[in-house]
Amino acid sequence: MAVQCSLELAKDSCCDDDGRQIRTGTYWTCIAHIITAVIGSGVLSLAWSIGQLGWIAGPISMLCFAIVTYVSSFLLSDSYRSPHPVTGTRNYTYMDAVKVNLGKKQTWVCGLLQYLSMYGTGIAYVITTSTSMRAIQRSNCFHREGHQASCAYGDSFYMLLFGAIQIVCSQIPNFHNMEWLSIVAAIMSFSYSSIGLALGFAKVIGNGRIKGSIAGVSTDTAAQKVWTVSQALGDIAFAYPYSIILIEIQDTLKSPPPENQTMKKASMTAIFITTFFYLCCGCFGYAAFGDQTPGNLLTGFGFYEPYWLIDFANACIVLHLVGGYQVYSQPVFAFVEKWLQNKFPNNGFVNKFYSIKIPLLPAVKMNLLRLCFRTAYVLSTTGIAMLFPYFNQVLGVLGALNFWPLAIYFPVEMYFVQKKIEPWARKWVVLRTFSVICLLVTMVALVGSVEGLISAKLS
After folding, report:
1. What is the reported pLDDT for 175?
2. Does the global pTM surpass 0.90?
3. Among residues 321, 330, 402, 437, which one has the fewest Cβ atoms lying within 10 Å of its Cβ?
């Protein structure tokens, strides 16, 4: 949530043109935020996804999702200011943009889906982080005891540990104070993606052949194949779109140049980089393991040695997801706290800040609402992750839920309103067809992912 400045100070160096905290974001910090949001736990499931789809459908599906994500970001970046994308009034959040362009009713639907998706992503990050922490322990066990050792460890302790770390990190005031965390997280994401790529490439060279087939992993029945293909599409959908936080990222960019221009350039660069890593990690992972491709490339233990490199890669995942969790949680924190402050303007619990001096560190301003709400939020995501610790299935459900409504429907509809595109005009027909096709893909992915989650819970 942006820090409000007084009107008298609106022209001061600490304040922006609308009296809010001055924005300092650049093309490079924007790329860092996007990569932190996009290259997350989803990259680890892509080898499995390509394995289910096969050598032709897998890479083509990934390229299609990359194109769709760029089109979505292109349309949405013009909605940051209204009514004109350069000179209009700023919309600070995705919901603000929907409210201005589409009205209150659709804003409620958008808000519900957006914050549910962010909350679900937090759950997925708890699962992924605990899996990586456990993988470090298993890797060391396999190195000591041999590859046939059981080396079985639970997830609960690591989930609780990650939750404790997030309780502390969640006290970061807002998105504008997170540039350093996103940069560190982006570096970590490059590190473990590169390691996964290198290990897959080395395994292919060691095997002396490329495994896998055009049809993908074989199943006992045609129905099982349909479910796994659907789930794979859901996993890829989870790995790409960042529309739910695009406006919030764009609100960190300084101007001039116009924010939409910077966002479009940063989106193209970030999507190109992530697609390259996704294709390399996914394709080399499937080429290395074929039908035995694990659901999580770095924790499924297709790789055992060098164990220290596996440990380092999983440590990078943990560090990255510490930042990634915050990127998706901060907009939720900002929305709830702003709503409560407007609802109870005179309540001390909601509005009063206390200055706490910590030795060797600058004074920290604490708010009881922030402390209690954010702690409860982290505890709830941790608790649900402990109940449903199913990596691929959870990613598939989240990807399918968030893909069409947030990455396609709302950006397309806002673009129609802002550009005043008439029904049945050529651009209207093209974008409407694009939206319907994406809806069908989303429905297929959602059904398959829900079936996979239910099956995993019952088994």
Report:
1. 56
2. no
3. 437
